[in-house]
Amino acid sequence: xxxxxxxxxxPGRAQSPQAVGExxxxxxxxVHHFFFLPFREQPIYSTRAHVFQIDPNTKxxxxxxxxxxxxxxxxxxxxxxxxxxxxLDGTKAIINSTIxxxxxxxxxxQKFGQWADSxxxxxxxxGFSSEHHLMKxxxxxxxxxxxxxxxxxxxxxxxxxxxxxxQESAAGDLQSPxxxxxxxxxDDERVTPDASPNSEPRPEPTQNALPxxxxxxxxxxxxxxxxALKSNNAKLTAALLESTANVKQWKQQxxxxxxxxxxxxxxxxxxxxxxxxxxxxxxxxxxxxxTIEELESTLKAKEEEVERxxxxxxxxxxLQTQRDSIAEKLQxxxxxxxxxxxxxxxxxxxxxxxxxxxxxxxxxxxxxxEILDGKIFELTELRDSLAKLVECS
Length: 393
Fold this sequence. Notes:
Layout: H1 17-20, H2 24-31, E1 41-54, E2 62-64, E3 70-77, E4 82-89, E5 92-98, E6 106-107, E7 112-117, E8 122-127, H3 131-161, H4 165-171, H5 213-273, H6 278-392
Antiparallel strand pairs: 1-2, 1-3, 1-8, 3-4, 4-5, 6-7, 7-8
Helix pairs in contact: 5-6
């Protein structure tokens, strides 16, 4: 296991005794369980990813076909020169796609890619744990696509050279050895869904928000922090699930290593009891001791990895506690915001009643001023009359 990828050694290639001692057969069984595949078809590259298919009704949204990351493998049929992408979830084949020259693997984001398959009448999508795994898978796709193109050209050349019916039927029978329901084909159609698998709707601010800059800023700050913690919590949960699966696999490997070590110890004891083969026994003993040391170092490394995963689980629990406290603070902020809104409505009502009272007072004052002006005018006329009377007398 290297960074989420599993490199499988092909049979027939030269391998060192150390590589043989690393239970290659056990890894192969753990990855695939392809009990229905013919022996002529061999895995040549494997990785892990979350598998999706396009919604057949909307043709826009992705539908997950695996609950967690599963193994996705390239297989090669040497007798027919056919490359296929196969993935199993338990015993169910969720991907069975034959690579042809017309296919195109499209990278829609840093960790997500897709390709169309017209025979299956669907579009497959893969979500990887890192951009490196996506780039590696895309490189292998392009490599095997080119190999399929060359194989197709060679097949067409053979068909042109020979015109016998048997050869024509054999050249036209390049199909998957599985059942007709699982046969896949090609398509150069690219489908880009409207929403990616991990996309979430962005909350838009409402237009009726009240003018409280300080309270609104606090509210937005806590909301952003809560969303970030939710995202981190989801990532840690996915990593924890994947780590738990890896721990189970490592435990199985450790048990196999222990059994292998016990068997090797017994073999060493038997060889020491044998006579007349001292040199051979010594060489075998040295090799077996070296293998045992490697297994013990591997066991130690796995135990350290298990401890590290336990620490990550504890950190995830701490983050969950922080998220709960932030949620409580956000709730308190919302309650304060509601209280401030109520106070604002009360102040607005008071202001409106005060304005009405001031308007009434202004009207009364204007009326009194008009009356006062009339009285002053009458007094002025009376003063003038009295002055005239005084002058006349």
